[in-house]
Amino acid sequence: MKDYEHVIIWTDYFNRNLSRRKGRKVSKDMAIFDPSIQELVDASKSAGFAVSADSTNETARFPRRPYVRSGYVMLAKNANSKKSNILLTLAERIAQNRARLSKRR
Question: pTM higher than 0.85, yes or no?
């Protein structure tokens, strides 16, 4: 049964290596190379979403690429938020977090 209270965010939505046909949802400018589930969780938490261990799945396979383990995070929807707005916010947070980590090295 479909859950209308949550939205599923796959790591493949942000993968710069993928085409839109293969599942990327954000523009290439906002996408990153090989995002991890931990980066997605960190970005979700910094964007203000509550993420628990039960709401993540690291071994799930994205339907358009069933031969690769991708992983997803399940986030609670807000009353006014659309999935596209959530994706854009998370893409910005992931890019910021990755830039901050690269400056430390």
Answer: yes
